[in-house]
Automatic annotation (TrEMBL):
Keywords: Cell shape, Coiled coil. This is Cell shape-determining protein MreC. Belongs to the MreC family. It holds the Pfam family MreC. Residues 121-270 form the Rod shape-determining protein MreC beta-barrel core domain. It comes from Clostridium oryzae. The gene is mreC. Involved in formation and maintenance of cell shape.
């Protein structure tokens, strides 16, 4: 780069000297013969050519000498842009997290009949990634097998095993979970199990509805307190389709769960006020 710079400088100096000499030669002529006119034309052409070359070389040298500076500035702009994008993503995530925490706190405050332990989802497993997951709370926090797991949106599942500081939760998507349920507006009862539909999405089905049942689309289905296994009133899902089981002379209702099991980050464990109680007698979730 240094060699190129020196060489181009020498060229510019030589062309400038020639340019000045031609100007001086032209100025010393008071009268022009025919031959001098030709020389004048050539001189003017030469002057223009030298000026043009000089201008282009100056522009080229300016580009060469400023290239590294421009490249550095461009890299700095890219870095700042990446930092701004990261901050925007972090802000959006913190905003969503704060919104979830606010709704969860409101849900817990509405249901003061029970205590709640808020947990983070730290690992997923099972036959499917949404069949079960691990939480970061265990027996030391009152989390034992049989405890019901929810979010402010509705039912998630049930704790099936617990250590001192962690526990395993099986979700509504697990084939091991069956939930006593009722249709909110008609009080018709049955039980709900989850299943994976043809689109590999988790849905649920409510069984044992009478053939005369008035169940219809958009009906809300909640938990029913049978055997103190689940608190009464937890939202499970809403009806998206009604089927007839001619063999059993009953109706079944396909439900869309309120909780998206794929997106869980935090959950709450419902703890009876009497921590020694194994069931959930009494209060209703609102």
């Amino acid at each position: 780069m240094k060699f190129l710079k020196n060489k181009l400088t020498v060229i510019i100096i030589l062309l400038s000297v020639i340019f000045l000499a031609l100007i001086g030669l032209s100025a010393m002529r008071d009268q022009r013969s025919g031959a001098e006119d030709i020389v004048g034309v050539v001189t003017n052409y030469g002057q223009k050519a030298v000026y043009s070359v000089n201008n282009k070389l100056s522009s080229f040298l300016s580009f060469v000498f400023n290239f590294s500076q421009v490249k550095s500035e461009n890299e700095q702009l890219k870095k700042k842009n990446a930092e701004l994008e990261y901050k925007a993503l972090m802000y959006d995530e913190l905003k969503k997290q704060n919104d979830r925490f606010s709704k969860e706190l409101d849900f817990q405050n509405r249901n003061g009949y029970f205590n709640f332990v808020t947990c983070n989802v730290i690992n997923r497993g099972g036959d499917s990634l949404i069949d079960e997951f691990t939480i970061d709370k265990g027996r030391n926090d009152g989390v034992i097998p049989g405890r019901v797991v929810v979010t402010y949106e509705g039912l998630v599942g049930q704790v099936t095993s617990a250590g001192k500081d962690s526990a395993i939760v099986e979700t509504l998507g697990s084939k091991n979970i069956a939930v006593a349920a009722k249709i909110q507006n008609s009080n018709e009862t049955g039980y709900v199990e989850g299943f994976t539909n043809s689109h590999n999405q988790i849905q649920a089905k409510m069984y044992n509805l009478a053939m005369s049942s008035s169940v219809k689309e958009n009906d809300v289905v909640t938990t029913e307190n049978v055997g103190d296994i689940y608190p009464k009133g937890i939202r499970i899902g809403y009806v998206v389709k009604v089927e007839k089981d001619e063999g059993k002379v009953m109706k079944n209702a396909i439900l869309q769960p309120y909780v998206d099991l794929n997106k869980l980050q935090e959950v709450s464990i419902i703890i009876p006020k009497d921590k020694n109680s194994s069931g959930y007698s009494g209060g209703e979730i609102k």
